[in-house]
Amino acid sequence: MSFSPLIRQLIDALRGLPGVGPKTAQRMALNLLERDRDVARHLAQVLESAMDGVGYCQRCRTLSETDICNICSDPRRDDNVICILQSPADVWAVEQAGGFRGRYFVLKGHLSPIDGRGPDEIGIPALLDSLTGREVAEVILATNPTVEGEATAHYIANLLKPRGIKVSRIAHGVPLGGELEFIDGGTLAHALAGRTPIL
Amino acid sequence: MSFSPLIRQLIDALRGLPGVGPKTAQRMALNLLERDRDVARHLAQVLESAMDGVGYCQRCRTLSETDICNICSDPRRDDNVICILQSPADVWAVEQAGGFRGRYFVLKGHLSPIDGRGPDEIGIPALLDSLTGREVAEVILATNPTVEGEATAHYIANLLKPRGIKVSRIAHGVPLGGELEFIDGGTLAHALAGRTPIL
Lengths: 199, 199
Ligand SMILES: [Zn+2]
Ligand SMILES: [Zn+2]
Description:
2 copies of one chain form a homodimer. By secondary structure, the first copy, chain A, is of the alpha/beta class. Chain A has 2 domains: 5-53, Orthogonal Bundle (Helicase, Ruva Protein, domain 3), CATH 1.10.8.420; 75-169, Dna Topoisomerase Vi A Subunit, Chain: A, domain 2. Chain A is 43% helix and 12% strand. Chain A contains 8 helices and 7 strands, in the order αααβββαβααβαβαβ. In chain A, the strands form 2 sheets. A 5-stranded mixed β-sheet of chain A has the order 4-3-5-6-7. The longest helix of chain A has 17 residues, at 37-53. The mean pLDDT of chain A is 89. The interface between A and B is large, with 56 and 56 residues.
């Protein structure tokens, strides 16, 4: 099998995309070269500009191309409720589920001492900073319903309780062991509505 | 749901890839932004250089970044046998199957009068040109085993017979109605070996 170097490189680069195996990458490369060169050039441009232009919201830490994301800058959202999540994908999932009108704070994953990911690594100090001097009626801990997500929720709950903030955990309507971003909107909306106090 | 414009554009551009639906595109976009920015930038560069640098072999018309592809320029290949295929993907498939050591000629698909794709559109004149003044013992017609592929093979056979060239069709070991590029290497090698004279 003798692909020319550029075609080989293209196939290899496409395999870098999540979920793309060798056969799929080969098929994508060929389709782009044979039929969709404009699509490929457009994708190249958009990849560049997205990687350059998309950073993180200074307030909630979700992916954003503006310093303050469009959720944080929306005056119609409720400042009194903050939903804490593990990743920007979870913000998208909760927004897609609908029903939540408060603000967000996005951690960098969950606590994982084995991997050297402690409170500093996942952004707990930034979370505490963001809550300081702010009137907050309730913090909803919506980390994943996994062992690590639960541990992270409890860790945060223990930090916030002494501050007199009402802390709740999303209801265990979410299937145990699952990951938030893959849960259907109905279940997720239900779990948010049925949240229970924690500690 | 409120993706920022650049993220929206990235998701839409990724959907341009063959076989990528909205959920997959969203997941890819997020993964690239959150974890794989270098992968994304590299992919962008490679897409650009492949679209600019990969053209078609002047001799066999397969995808190539050189004027003459590495199969056509390989002196160890047998000039006496030419395998005619519908697409560069089919060249890759036959090469991967192994066992064929001749040359190729790649058509632009199959005849399709309904779509206005006649002999000129699929490159029949270029095929005839390439055969003119050339010593060829045999032409193997390896168009797809579909109705259109069969019709295209017969059309070409009728043109070549008067020139006194031995024309064969790959054996119908290939499943009828299938597309060559998806057939496993063993079947394909077998079908090539068991080719039968046509007309
Ligand atoms: Zn924000
Ligand atoms: Zn060639």
